[in-house]
Amino acid sequence: MPDISVNILIGGEAGQGLVTVGDFLAKALVRAGYEIVVTQDYMSRIRGGHNTYAVRVSPDPVFAPREGVDILVALDAASYPLHRDQLSERAVVLVDEALGEAAAGPRTLLVPFKALCPKPIFENMAALGVLCSLLCLDAAWIEKIIHDTFAKKGEEMVAANRKVFADAMAWTAEQQVSFTCIAPAVNTGKRIMLNGNEAIALGAMAAGVNFCSFYPMTPGTSVALTLAAKGQKMGVVVEQAEDEIAAVNMAIGASFTGATALVPTSGGGFALMVEGISLSGMIETPVVVVVAMRPGPATGLPTRTEQADLNLVLYAGHGEFPRAIFAPGTVEQCFHLTHAAVHIAEKYQSPVFVLTDQFLADSYRGVVPFDLAALPAVARPGTAHDGPGVYERYAVTDSGVSPRLIPGFGDSLVVADSDEHTADGHITEDLGVRVTMQDKRSRKMAGLLADAVPPELHGDPSSDVLLACWGTTRGAALEAAALLRESGTSCAVLHFSQVYPLVPGQFLPLLEKAPRAVMVEGNSTGQLARLIRQETGFVFAHHILRYDGLPLTARYILDRLGSKRP
Amino acid sequence: MVTVADYGDFETAWCPGCGNFSIRKAVIKALVSLGLSPHEVLFVSGIGQAAKAPHYLRANVFNGLHGRSLPPAQGAKLANPGLTVIAESGDGCSYGEGGNHFLAALRRNVDLTLLAHDNQIYGLTKGQASPTTMEGQVTKAQPMGAPSMPFNPMAVAVAMRAGFVARGFSGDIEHLSGLIERAVRHKGFSLVDILQPCVSFNKVNTFAWYKERVYRLGDDHDPRDFGAAMEKAMEFGERIPIGVIYENDRPPFGGRLPEAARGPLALHRPDMAVLDGILAAYA
Predict the structure, then answer these.
(1) What is the nearest CA distance from A317 to chain B, expressed in angstroms?
(2) ipTM surpassing 0.85, yes or no?
(3) A427 touches chain B (CB under 8 A)
(4) Is A224 domain-assigned?
(5) Segments forming the whole domain that contains residue A469
(6) Stretch 96-125 of chain B: residues touching chain A, C-beta under 8 Å
(7) Which stretches in chain A have pLDDT values below 50?
(8) What is the rounded CA–CA span in Å between residue A301 and residue B103?
(9) Does B62 sit within 8 Å of A279, measured CB to CB?
(10) Do A221 and A340 share a domain, yes or no?
(11) How many whole angstroms separate alpha carbon B8 and alpha carbon B138?
């Protein structure tokens, strides 16, 4: 199966508008029925530096970014030299002719941006015109987006943008560029374009999340921004807290009085929340925390991607208490697993985590709109105490889950304490009660295990190679497996979208049977592999690890498939 | 009708003679006077001897982490604006570990009351200097004398133009309960800093020490006069004023939140038709 995807890379300085070009193009492609994977690579600065926005587009499903660049849009002089080595054989480079020959190479199209644009602010439209022409994309898709975007600024603005766009298309058509048009789209169904964080925010709202407190930290922030921008109509209260410690405690307080609360952050911010996570575990008040991973330790690479916070989230909090950790691998899973995370948190009255990363957080995809009517029900706390006697917030039960009431509804009093407490919530130093309560909390683990999402197996379980992965590495693993199969090696993928708790029976036989089981992770120590070893005794003999700040790709995996543990 | 008995009678873990007993009496007296039933009130506390206070009355209680009474208190109030929310904790918890939360609460102005039991010492950890310990006071942890200038919660709150800033004294229950009542009635963040002796670990700021210095602010003090309020907020030494130091009508947080006006978040259910519309906008 030949790769018919086209990889477009827009490079330039922060502030040059490359995201505008990328977003317009991506949206037009999705509307036209194409499959996309967007990868955004940016530096931790507001202006200058070098950023890229890559759109991999194909009529067929694509799951991951890819290295080779087929069209390079060089918005600054640095882009061509920086990305020269990534250019594919058929690559075309678009460079502003004002940047001169120094910024250009063979197969470069010098675009007369100055002549095409009455004002520099229209350069984005000119770039889109050239791209649209090269790809042979129906101009109507871009024109519609120009209209939708600029209509509120007046018809004149729409017309000015459209003119630049049309002129640039016409100019390109006259040039002698041999670039094969993108193959016609086959998908005709209705789709929407979302990135991972947007899907998480929408999944949260679908699950009834109506309270979000946060402290801004890349790449987690956009979950809160989406809730702030879209959540008002849904009745979502969003508050920017003074710090992460406040954010998580505020959410737990809101949850205690009946809100459905979510807190988005990243590793460094989550490190500050750890005390609050322990509180959630102790007072059995649910909270969902989205941890969008980026490279550490400490401030690390603030805008790049990594999967190295699994251990942090797994062990966050002092003492022992049950938890669940989800790790979506696609935009659809971001939506559905966040929905599930809210349900599990409410059902087991525990902290629950959604682990994503910068790559998926910023990665746009075209997805079929979610069927909201088909979503399963979400557990809710009670608001009416109808039992006899005094209400006991921590009544001892077989499941470990106590009937949960929220204060202010009816005469029942709700008492929660971070100290060890009696069944009615009051502080105690009775060591027998301590053991009873610790056992009660621990019993919830059985329920969490019963509800655990099993890993997905893609491919024949008797394959020679089994690529195990979790979270956002799913796409790269699936593509690598497909490429291996094309070259005659049988390969399957085992993707964990829930990484804790693990149910060995769901995957251990597959791992033990595989002639070659390889763990693919975005960290330097193989954190999930170690967790699996700890939980099951199974040792992965082969690891493919990436921790240079970039997302995993099929090529990265295939290049290293021969190597053993580093 | 709500009575003192509704708030129950409990055995406590406090030292005999602790100021907390009087504060507890004043709190209950204020709640009864306000006609609030136990289930209408939520106490949120941190850690320390003062933070145990909510366990010693009948009400809804969220006894969380050290220094963290205000964030959950604000979250709780935003989630259910109908609840009367009272954060109650000590000086170390409120102004030390929770200092940033105190500053943010002053800015945010959520409608709740902070009762800070201020004994100028860490009691539960047995006598280290607290943020309000006087400079030079010798403790086991500060044998050369507390090296830092004491935090002035009154002046900071007035400087931030908090809506209601008061100081009380555990030795004057009648007066204190009146302050708490007014603080709870105030729409917005209200602070009552309550001077109290720590009989076990503060041998300087004793009951007699406070009794000698504390005086009730008279009608001649206008709490709406910022300059006068600041002057009274700075007065701490030979004479210490108790009463409402500063007051204004700054609108509480939440006025800008139309979604919060819909009532308790507990009763909200997501409107899938609305969400469908939001999803459609991503097409």
Answers:
(1) 13
(2) yes
(3) yes
(4) yes
(5) 456-564
(6) 100-101, 103-104
(7) 564-566
(8) 31
(9) no
(10) yes
(11) 39
